[in-house]
From TrEMBL:
SUPFAM superfamilies: HAD-like. GO terms for cellular component: cytosol. It comes from the Bacteria. This is HAD family phosphatase. It holds the Pfam family Hydrolase_3. One of its GO terms (molecular function) is phosphatase activity.
């Protein structure tokens, strides 16, 4: 099989536990790009929070892409232009805010370079640290958020958040795409928008057959991408449900799993 494009999750997949790309992974990605492989960073992260990593991996030089906000935006690294964007309306965000209050969770959304919330929590602090975005705490979420946004997140203790996920899906499964990424992040995007749909859309734009695509991930928000790719790959540290449905298990995120996959399936070293 001659693969042409790789879609990779970031946190706990490409990034190690220090939230860095190992030098071994970086060199393998650059070598694969030199051989004509397109690389796509696919994350729940905001676009802004992915630029530095894309630059480090030379995606702008070799024609890579970003799938940010779980596939709500597709960005061409060479030009910085968004070639696809899907948003929640302000009404959607207000509805989700009301349910966050009902379920007693924190809620955030994004505007330009800011993370917006009414509250402070250790879980919001994780997102601020991951994205390096400014945290804007407002008096009224509904008054502040009078614009569309690509995503919002409900945040709370992991076991409780699983219960919230089930209840939200029971209510809104026909209206929104709802998935847990990190155990304390419950992500909500427009219905029909996820990493898998974005994979299909970009492959179609680039005229690449699905059979020639690779996706690699570790968590539940990666499932649509893994299901839609020609070759589905889990890192060794992935959740068991993810590993059980993938065709190939590579090494862990702390053991240069990306390089192992590239050397085995692409460069065939």
């Amino acid at each position: 099989m001659s693969y042409k494009i790789v879609f990779t999750d970031l946190d706990d997949t490409l990034l190690n536990d220090k939230r860095e790309v190992s030098l071994i992974d970086k060199l393998a990605i650059i070598e694969a790009q030199k051989q004509g492989i397109i690389f796509v960073l696919a994350s729940g992260r905001p676009t802004f929070a992915m630029y530095d990593l894309a630059k480090e991996l030379e995606l702008d030089k070799y024609g890579g892409y970003l799938l940010s906000f779980n596939g709500s935006i597709i960005t061409e690294c060479k030009t910085g232009k968004n070639i696809f964007e899907a948003t929640l309306t302000s009404d959607d965000l207000h509805i989700l805010y009301e349910y966050s209050k009902k379920f007693n969770t924190h809620i955030i959304t994004y505007h330009q370079d800011d993370i917006i919330s009414e509250t402070q929590s250790k879980y919001i602090d994780v997102e601020v640290e991951l994205t390096r975005m400014n945290h804007k705490i407002v008096d009224s979420f509904k008054k502040e958020v009078n614009y569309p946004a690509v995503k919002c997140m409900l945040l709370e203790e992991p076991q409780y958040l699983k219960q919230v996920e089930k209840q939200l899906k029971d209510i809104f499964n026909d209206k929104y795409t709802i998935a847990i990424s990190k155990p304390f992040f419950l992500e909500v995007t427009k219905k029909g928008i996820d990493k898998g749909i974005a994979l299909q859309k970009l492959a179609s734009i680039l005229n690449i057959n699905i059979e020639d695509t690779i996706a690699i991930g570790d968590s539940f928000n990666d499932l649509p991408m893994l299901k839609n790719a020609g070759m589905s790959i889990a890192v060794e540290n992935a959740k068991d449900e993810i590993k059980n449905m993938c065709k190939f298990i590579t090494k862990s995120n702390n053991d240069s799993g990306m390089a192992h996959m590239i050397n085995t399936l692409i460069l065939k070293k």
